[in-house]
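Handoff note, outgoing to incoming analyst
You'll be picking up this chain. Sequence as last confirmed:
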Amino acid sequence: MYPDGYPDFPMPQTLRVDEANERVTISCQVSDIDIVWQLAEAGTGTAINVNVTLPEHEAHRLDGQQQVIGESLRRLTTLAEAASG
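Most recent structure output, in case you need it:
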């Protein structure tokens, strides 16, 4: 990941796919933050569950993580609506 602004260096990430539980986990190798994305059928749509785990020493970054996830969900919604339409 190459963020704009802070931090001013690339942040290595790992990506794990758990097919049995139908989820994808993205883990930051710098800050030990785990983000688990899980999508599931929900009627005619899709339910999205995102769980962010922060170690105690990164708790001050919670608001920023909520903003990033919120923006990611908005972008995902825009892409899905464009693809269906």
